[in-house]
Amino acid sequence: MAELLKGAPVAAALNEKMAADAAALKEKGVIPTLAILRVGERDDDLSYERGAMKRCGQVGVEVKNVVLPVDVDSDTFFKTLDELNNDDSVHGILMFRPLPKQLDGEKARKCLAPEKDVDGCTDGSLAGVFTNTVCGFPPCTAQAAMEILHYYGIDPKGKRVTIVGRSLVIGRPVAMMLMHENATITICHTRTKDVPAETRGAEIVVAASGAMESIGAEHLSEGQIVIDVGIGWNEEKQKLCGDVKFEEAEPIVSMITPVPGGVGNVTTSVLVSHVIEAAKRAAK
User: Fold this and answer.
1) CB contact set of 20 (below 8 Å; sequence gap of 6+)
2) Per-domain residue ranges for the chain?
3) What are the pLDDT digits (tens) for 123-153?
């Protein structure tokens, strides 16, 4: 039976450090502040917003909610974003996407100041990930996967890692982050000829394709470590599940993140840690 790489203790450790860092900043007169820019009332946005606000409250980060109507015009939206970019009291901006059709989402992504891009979506943030430099922040889910590896003492150095999925949210950035720690990387995608052969030969598998329960026993081999980033609702089985068929994987691999209860539990803590880091950088 595989060891479960649960996210809760990882998040707890991050939260403890964040609370201490936020308190130290406040002693210097700096109040770490997250601005949440939301257009409309999408259920998934509201759910994530509640989680982010709860986490901020737990560690001493202030939240400024900026809510615009779903039919907001382009001029008003970009004026609001510009004001947040230039507000020195705001250290991080969480801009919910996708935006309504009347707003240019790509323009919005490019207009967001990288130094406040705590969700890691701007070109500046992604450049920082690829060059391993301090520019913006990594995408939260990619960093959450790395935080789990670090917490459980899993050193990627020299290990063969296969990543299933090449998105800019997780696949490619986590590949770069692992490479910076001297792992040997293979990225699989929809045009990969034999995904099971690629994953079976890896020591660490990162499942990040967004295809629910698409990775089963034929993809895995004994002793592997599996980081399952996917999460979705399996209507047939009436449960939340990941990209990996957990019941097939658990008897084979040595370690695996559960879904739910794995990477997702850490993601919000990473977001808030970016706000605190942005406040530290601004204070310097």
Assistant:
1) none
2) 29-115, 140-264
3) 999 999 999 999 999 999 999 999 999 999 9
